[in-house]
Amino acid sequence: MNATKPLLRWASGIMVALGVGHLVILTVTGWEHVGGWADRGLWAAVPLDLSGSAVKTAASLQNAVTFWAGLGSFAVPLALLGALIWRLAGRGVPVPAWLGWGLAVWCVFGGVLLVPSPYFAGTVAGLLVVLAARKQDRA
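User: That's the sequence. What structure does it adopt?
Assistant: Structure tokens below.
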């Protein structure tokens, strides 16, 4: 058995759990806004006003927050990256250390800015990728 496979599987499991968990929690807590997107026909249900001229209400701001904290966040790409790493680990394909370092640094900064948060679990996933890459290099 490849010595890096368990490390990469743990890392990918953490990433998928963070991404999917984030979406599930946000969907449950922001359901009135998520449901409203379908009621409004989806197209431009969360308008992006760059001019700053539109009047912002508490409801429109909460609608935007729900989008940017859910589908517009890094939850989907993080879950997809985790799924890709799971697949690569299963095939014995090495994952580069730079990917783990990038994830770890991003999650440290996110965790420092948003305390308490599960960002630090993402740091663990990144460091597991780095550790697996180093084991792969030594083998």
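The mean pLDDT is 86.
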